[in-house]
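User: Hello! I'm new to structural biology and keep hearing that structure can be predicted from sequence alone. Could you demonstrate with Ferrous iron transport protein A? Please show me the input and the output so I can see what each looks like.

Assistant: Of course. The first part below is the input, the amino acid sequence of Ferrous iron transport protein A. The second part is the output, the predicted structure written as tokens.
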Amino acid sequence: MAGTCPLALLAPGTGGTVAELRAGKGMQTRLFGMGFCPDARVKVQCADRGSIIVSVGDARYALSRGMAMKILVREGIP
């Protein structure tokens, strides 16, 4: 999908819109339950070492870099 990048590559303080999840069925179910649905707005709060703290809606989650690489986003919050 053109114009997308993995969530793990966004700098802290930047955000975007979820474009696609490239994960298995079990991981997709887990991410959907957390609010990572297509067109959901996400923002990277902190990206230190192994974990990335992101906000989705009113919730904040700590994701591993591997998990964040499976979430493709369109940069820039509309």
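User: So the tokens describe the shape?

Assistant: Right, they're a compact way of writing down the 3D structure. Reading them back into a model, for example: The chain has one domain: 4-75.
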